[in-house]
Structure formats: structure tokens, C-alpha cells
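Progress note, sequence design subtask.
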């Protein structure tokens, strides 16, 4: 019996021994597998838990004016980022971030949500830290796990709000923009800063540089502790613009002064306006101003919700570029186009005379702009004094479709092709327009169209291009804002060449008749009489210029006043168009044009505008 117990004990020991051998073998195999087979992969995984690729943002390309003056650049700034291996911050840490960074809760939530969706990418919390914010982050680093500060290039527009819509602003890329630009710019990713409007958006592919990066070792809180490698960023290419910085500033100052004087002297809500200056031989835009505007720098540094709400809720829409994105009934500034249509269709000749009655003789018997008899006038005289009745008759004789035909050749009713986003086309109505709209066409609508008060609509850029075509005997140029694209090292990558979109081969006497009429607009005298509608605005001006006044009723917006011009009259170089919403008379806006010419041609105007406290009302269409 005792012997059986001993044998049983020995068998159990043998079993336990074999079990020990098996377990030991499994442990040895596991050790071998971990160290020899899976070792490299696990080592890599371990390293990846500690090593992160942090981007070094590439500076966007700079913008210069036509004379090489810097307009848009990048300044060094500090930005706060969040990254943590332990996940997003808890409630207490979030409250600390709000306090230290002085960041709105909704903005912080968006940043944290972005990090939660992509936890291996550092997320921007706040750009352009103030000195106080920078100091607080550094001092309170132990209580802010996951937060680190890095130097970034911050977009800076040296013009500020002057031409804000033209330059545009930058901001974080949206998902829609990311999808739209992914083919053109494959390097883009969520959170990147891109152009949102204006030239910043139009030339995004050129201005966007190539980010560099740092391979850094981070601690458990996600803070960089050691740089393992670095790739330098490549700056974006630079733009040489056609704008003249000094002329841009003068145009903005003069337009603001004109609007302020109209508000104070005539008590009109002249709170919005625009102006554009173009080289008539090349199509280069020398100045483009739209008021009210916004400061692109506010967006670069992170605009507050309150500031953004103020801009969005402004009834005069500071984001709207009124030069290319507003189409108005052009009023009497359209009469030169109607004159060309009448001449080219054979309805009139330069010598044709039409009685300038106070009221037209066909139903619905529309009035002239002034209750006076102009006498029998030819086309030049009718343009100079803006004789509505003359153009009612020209419209009737020419026909609405012929007006549309020649207006289209002058560039109305279609985009100019300028290198800016969201340009509107305006409207050139035809008989078919009214048949579709009203079910029938009535001849009376032609009278309104012929004086720019029908369904015809035009942008200021279309008007300035028409003025250029008249001044150059029919050359319709494509306007543009970027003359050259230049690499960071100074190498020219591309150059924009002047582009003739249309050459209207009208007989020279036709062009001379229209040109003489526009010159007559700026000559002094009585109305009706030998003087023009803007004659009083150019008294003592040391240069002969051509122009055309205009006032139009804008549905839902009251009146809009216009002045279009080119100079010098004998040797035209540039064209200008100015518009003021809720203005008084188009002739009043001629003071802005006068200031522009004084600046551009260095005239030293003996009687510069805006020097008197109260302007006189210039009686003109």
C-alpha cells in the first residue's frame, strides 16, 4: 500500500515536471518571438508613440505694387497648439486653457473637436499670442498638459482696409475648399491657412508655399522635448501687382471725403461707394476701392465673434467688392454705348440733330432730366448735356436688339475676365428678355434702356473698360491685377500680357463724335447751353479731360450716382469710374476723379477738392 502511494507521488512529480518544461518552453518561445521576430516592429511602434512630425508652416508669397512697394507680407508671431498622447483635455484643463489663452469657449471647443477627430495631429488653439498670453502659457505650462507654443508666419496686409476686398483675407481651409483644391494643391490638409477672398483666393496655388517639418520626441503630455530632424519650408511665390499703392490710398481717401461731404452737406445716406482706375492701353488696374471695407489683418490674427458679427450684419456689406460684384442700372454713363449703337446701326450720323425737348413726344412721354429746352442737338452736344430726349429717340430709331449687340461688343453683359473671384456679369436686355419676362415686348422699354434706366445693369469694371474702348478708338481690353509671378529668389515665373478682347472697327468720325461729347461734359458753361454736366467740377483744372455723369434709380436702394472719365483728353492714358450709393449728382463725384488725376499726373491742382467745408450742389445728371 505504501509502495502504491510512493509510485503515485512520483507520477505526479513527473507530470508537474513536464508541465513546467512545457510552460518554460512557451515562455522561451514567447521571448524569442518578441525579441527576434516582432522586435523591430514593436521598437518602431514604441518610437512612434514618442516621436511626432510637427509642421513648420511655409510663409505665403508676398505681394508688391507696380513700383515694388511691399503690400502684403508675413510677420513672425507665436501660436499655441494642443497635442497630447493621453487624449483631449478634461473639463478642468479646458477651463484653464480658456483663461490662460483668453479664448472663446466655442472656438476652443472647435479646436478640441478637431483634435479628437485626428488625435495624431497638433491642432491650433490660438494664433498671434500677445506678450501677456505668451508669458502665461510659459509660466503655467505644468498645469496645461498638451499645450506648446511655436513660431508661425502671420499674414500682414500693409494697406489695411484700403482695398481689403481686392487683396482678400486668409483663414483655415474648409472641407469644401479642401476637396476643391486637392487636385491643384495636393499638399493641402485640414487646418491649413488658405486665401478666402480676393487675390489671396484667386492665386492660392501660387501663394501657398510648401510646409517643412520637424521630427520631434514628445513626452507623455505631448510636449516636444528633443528635435530629431528638420526639413525647411519653401515660401510661396510672390505677386507683382498692377496696383499703385499711392494711387490706391489717394482714391480711398478722396472717395471717403466725397461721401462724408455728401452726408454732412446734403444729409443723404451716402455710406457706400466704389472707384476703379485702369490703364486704357494695357487693361492694368491701377486702383480698386470699395467702401465700406474690412481689414484683412483682423482675420489673420483671429477675428472675434463680435467683430465678425458686426461685419456680417452691416447693411452696407463690407465684404462686397462693389467694383466687380455689384451691377447697377448705369444711368447716363451708358449713353456713350447707345450713341455708338445708333451710329453703327445707321440710325444716326455724327451730324444728325434731334430736338432737345423737355418731354419726349411718344408715349409714355418720358421727361428730360431737366425741365428745359436744349434746342436741336447732335450726338456730341447730347452727350455733353446728357439730353435724355435725344437718347429716347436714338433708342427708338436704333432698336433694343442693336443696342444690345453693340453693348455686348463693348463688354457689357459678360464677365470682364479679371483675375478675381465672383465677378458678376450684369444684364444687357433684348426683346427676347422681355418676352420671357413679361410675355410681350413694348417699345417704351427701349427709351428707359437707352438712358441706362431700364433692365440694363453694369459693373464699374465694365464701365471703365467701355471708357477705355472709347478713348482708344475701339480697343476693349481685358483688365487684370497681377503683372508677374516671381519666385522667392527673384526669378520671373510668368508675366501677364495685355489682351485685346475686342476691336470695334468703327469709322473714326464716330469715335471722335463720342469723344468730343465726353470732353464737352467737363467744359464750363450753362445747362442747357455750351457747358457740360460736370463743367463746374473742373473749373481751373490744369488738364483737359473727358467724362460722363450719371444718376440712376436702383430698385430697393434709392439713387446711385456715377462719374466716368479718361485723361488726358488729347493723349488718353487712364480711365476712372466712381460711384456713390445714395449720392446727389454724378457731377459731385467728379471731385474724386479730379483728386485721382492730380495724384497720378502730378498736377499740383491749384484748387484741390475737399478743401471747403460745404460743397455746392453741382447741377448735373
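Output:
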Amino acid at each position: 500500500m505504501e509502495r502504491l502511494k510512493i509510485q503515485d507521488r512520483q507520477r505526479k512529480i513527473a507530470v508537474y515536471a513536464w508541465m513546467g518544461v512545457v510552460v518554460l518552453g512557451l515562455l522561451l518561445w514567447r521571448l524569442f518571438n518578441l525579441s527576434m521576430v516582432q522586435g523591430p516592429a514593436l521598437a518602431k511602434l514604441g518610437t512612434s508613440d514618442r516621436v511626432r512630425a510637427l509642421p513648420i508652416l511655409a510663409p505665403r508669397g508676398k505681394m508688391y505694387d507696380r513700383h515694388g512697394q511691399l503690400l502684403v507680407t508675413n510677420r513672425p508671431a507665436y501660436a499655441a497648439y494642443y497635442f497630447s498622447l493621453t487624449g483631449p483635455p478634461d473639463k478642468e484643463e479646458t477651463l484653464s486653457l480658456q483663461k490662460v489663452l483668453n479664448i472663446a469657449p466655442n472656438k476652443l471647443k472647435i479646436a478640441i473637436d478637431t483634435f479628437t477627430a485626428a488625435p495624431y495631429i497638433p491642432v491650433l488653439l490660438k494664433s498671434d499670442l500677445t506678450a501677456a498670453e505668451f508669458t502665461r502659457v510659459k509660466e503655467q505650462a505644468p498645469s496645461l498638459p498638451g499645450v506648446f507654443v511655436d513660431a508661425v508666419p502671420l499674414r500682414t496686409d500693409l494697406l489695411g482696409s484700403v482695398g481689403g476686398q481686392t487683396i482678400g483675407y486668409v483663414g483655415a481651409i474648409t472641407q469644401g475648399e479642401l476637396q476643391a483644391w486637392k487636385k491643384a494643391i495636393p499638399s493641402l490638409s485640414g487646418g491649413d491657412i488658405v486665401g478666402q477672398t480676393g487675390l489671396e483666393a484667386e492665386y492660392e496655388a501660387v501663394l501657398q508655399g510648401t510646409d517643412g517639418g520637424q521630427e520631434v520626441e514628445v513626452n507623455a503630455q505631448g510636449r516636444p522635448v528633443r528635435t530629431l530632424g528638420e526639413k525647411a519650408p519653401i515660401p510661396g511665390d510672390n505677386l507683382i501687382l498692377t496696383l499703385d499703392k499711392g494711387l490706391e490710398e489717394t482714391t480711398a481717401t478722396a472717395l471717403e471725403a466725397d461721401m462724408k461731404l455728401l452726408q454732412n452737406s446734403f444729409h443723404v445716406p451716402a455710406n457706400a461707394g466704389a472707384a476703379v482706375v485702369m490703364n486704357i492701353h494695357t487693361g492694368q488696374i491701377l486702383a480698386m476701392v470699395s467702401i465700406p471695407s474690412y481689414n484683412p489683418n483682423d482675420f489673420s490674427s483671429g477675428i472675434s465673434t463680435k467683430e465678425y458679427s458686426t461685419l456680417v450684419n452691416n447693411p452696407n456689406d463690407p465684404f462686397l467688392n462693389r467694383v466687380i460684384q455689384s451691377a447697377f442700372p448705369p444711368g447716363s454713363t451708358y449713353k456713350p454705348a447707345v450713341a455708338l449703337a445708333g451710329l453703327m446701326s445707321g440710325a444716326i450720323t455724327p451730324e444728325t440733330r434731334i430736338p432737345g425737348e423737355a418731354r419726349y413726344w411718344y408715349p409714355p412721354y418720358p421727361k428730360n432730366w431737366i425741365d428745359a429746352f436744349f434746342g436741336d442737338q447732335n450726338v456730341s452736344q447730347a452727350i455733353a448735356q446728357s439730353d435724355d430726349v435725344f437718347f429716347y429717340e436714338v433708342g427708338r430709331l436704333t432698336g433694343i436688339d442693336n443696342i444690345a449687340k453693340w453693348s455686348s461688343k463693348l463688354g457689357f453683359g459678360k464677365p470682364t475676365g479679371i483675375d478675381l473671384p465672383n465677378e458678376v456679369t450684369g444684364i444687357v436686355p433684348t426683346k427676347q428678355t422681355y418676352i420671357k419676362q413679361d410675355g410681350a415686348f413694348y417699345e417704351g422699354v427701349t427709351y428707359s434702356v437707352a438712358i441706362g434706366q431700364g433692365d440694363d445693369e453694369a459693373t464699374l469694371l465694365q464701365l471703365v473698360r467701355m471708357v477705355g474702348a472709347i478713348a482708344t478708338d475701339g480697343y476693349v481690353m481685358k483688365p487684370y491685377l497681377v503683372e508677374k509671378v516671381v519666385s522667392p529668389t527673384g526669378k520671373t515665373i510668368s508675366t501677364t500680357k495685355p489682351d485685346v478682347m475686342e476691336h470695334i472697327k468703327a469709322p473714326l468720325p464716330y469715335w471722335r463724335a463720342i469723344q468730343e461729347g465726353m470732353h464737352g461734359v467737363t467744359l464750363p458753361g450753362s445747362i442747357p447751353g455750351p457747358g457740360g454736366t460736370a463743367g463746374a467740377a473742373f473749373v481751373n483744372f490744369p488738364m483737359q479731360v473727358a467724362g460722363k455723369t450719371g444718376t440712376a434709380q436702383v430698385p430697393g436702394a434709392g439713387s446711385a450716382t456715377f462719374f466716368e472719365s479718361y485723361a488726358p483728353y488729347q493723349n488718353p492714358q487712364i480711365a476712372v469710374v466712381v460711384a456713390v450709393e445714395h449720392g446727389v449728382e454724378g457731377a459731385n463725384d467728379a471731385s474724386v476723379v479730379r483728386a485721382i488725376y492730380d495724384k497720378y499726373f502730378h498736377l499740383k491742382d491749384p484748387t484741390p477738392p475737399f478743401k471747403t467745408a460745404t460743397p455746392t450742389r453741382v447741377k448735373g445728371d
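Residues 55-241 form a domain with the Penicillin-binding protein 2a (Domain 2) fold (CATH 3.90.1310.10). Work on this subtask will continue into the next period as scheduled.
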